[in-house]
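Researcher: Please predict.
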Amino acid sequence: MSTSTAELNRARERVLALARQIEDLSHAETDEATYFPEFLKRLLSAVGAPAGVIWLKGPGGSVNPKCEQGLALTGYKEAPQADQLNAGLLTEVFQNGQSTMYGGGERTDKPTPTNHLYVLSPILNGKDCVGVVEIFQRPDTDPRARPGYLQFIAQMCGYA
């Protein structure tokens, strides 16, 4: 077995272990304040992304961040109109309940606050979108790997 094949197998096993941890965490009796940061930490590790935010609908339909990790490393907070641009991305997912990607050479119909690849996936309660998981992936992520990232993140959000 070549070194690259062995490395690939180790990476695959690590991702599968993290996916099992997310599934186990999702079946445990855990409050939101504990669950979402642990979920996000494992998800970011599994996909090798530097940052992510979990957004939940609040009273009156407001959308608020429940937790975030690594956001300060992305340049998001320094980007002009970051919240306004990001609201457009979130609104689409909240409205249609579909996972999607923006930036980094993906959909360009909505500008993104930073140059990252934005991977967004809904958190559904039945058919209602009650939250969105937003992953800030490196913009140089191999385009061939992107559909797999989207599918994996959507699958993990199904546990949330």
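Model: DSSP finds four helices and five strands in the chain.
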